[in-house]
Amino acid sequence: MATGAPKDLVAAGSDVENFEAFREQQRAAVADALIELVGTSGFAAVNVSDLVRVVDMSRKTFYKYFPSIEAALVYTQKMVLTGMRTEPALRHKSGLSHFLGQLRGIADLALERPDRMIFLGFFDFAVKGSIPAADRETYEAFTVRLAEESLSAFAQGQRDGSIDPGLPATETVLASTNAVFGLAQRCLNASTTAKNKGLTGRLIAAELHAWEAVLTAK
């Protein structure tokens, strides 16, 4: 006797999944085009006309996926930030290793995808302060979740004894994250390091080593 859902329902479900996967591919293509535009145009205003030209998409199609250019920018920011947190936590043997892995994700982004790191700087400088109300609530909730992930790894380290229990959690997480992120951005923007990947890598490695010394339980 045959079991499972009827074939027509299975096919319908597959069609929905395929359609959603296609929509996500289109959104990702728009995000990649935005990253490219920011990298080539610097802090010049990004507009829909230039964007659809780069991504080879009509304006009508663009608005099927995003209600505005600001919504596309927020989507791109979230995509880049999420990409820095792809390493499963289970691989880490301690909270310190887990937290340092998150910091290392920032460093890896700067070394492997500098265009994405440049986009993050553009977003913070030119976009974040003017996010429309319709997108602000969901974006703020997203950033809170990222912060909670970092605080969770830090707390894990203080519980298992790998991170100094005397360190204030919120202040240390913010200070270390901003320090690594700021150094990575300065390396990409400074003439002496922008084209010297080896030097950039050594500077960031030194920063991570310094923070490991600060964090490690004495």
Count helical runs. Answer: 9
CATH architecture: Orthogonal Bundle
Quick check: average pLDDT?
86
Secondary-structure element string: HHHHHHHHH
Q: Using the coordinates above, name the CATH class.
A: Mainly Alpha
Quaternary class: single chain
Low-confidence stretches: none
Give me the secondary-structure category: mainly alpha
Write out the CATH superfamily name.
Tetracycline Repressor, domain 2
Distance between the termini: 66 Å
CATH topology: Tetracycline Repressor, domain 2
Domains, number: 1
Work out the strand percent. Answer: under 5%
**Any idea what the shape is?**
globular
**Radius of gyration from CA coordinates:** 21 Å
Largest sheet: none
What's the β-strand tally?
Answer: 0
Helix proportion range: over 70%
Please explain how this structure is put together.
- The chain is mostly helical and 218 residues long.
- It has one domain (7-215): Tetracycline Repressor, domain 2 (Orthogonal Bundle).
- It contains nine helices and no strands.
- It has helices at 7-41, 48-55, 59-65, 69-83, 95-112, 114-127, 133-160, 169-189, 197-215.
- The radius of gyration is 21 Å and the shape is globular.
- The model has no long low-confidence stretch (mean pLDDT 86).
In short, what is this structure?
The chain is an all-alpha fold and 218 residues long.
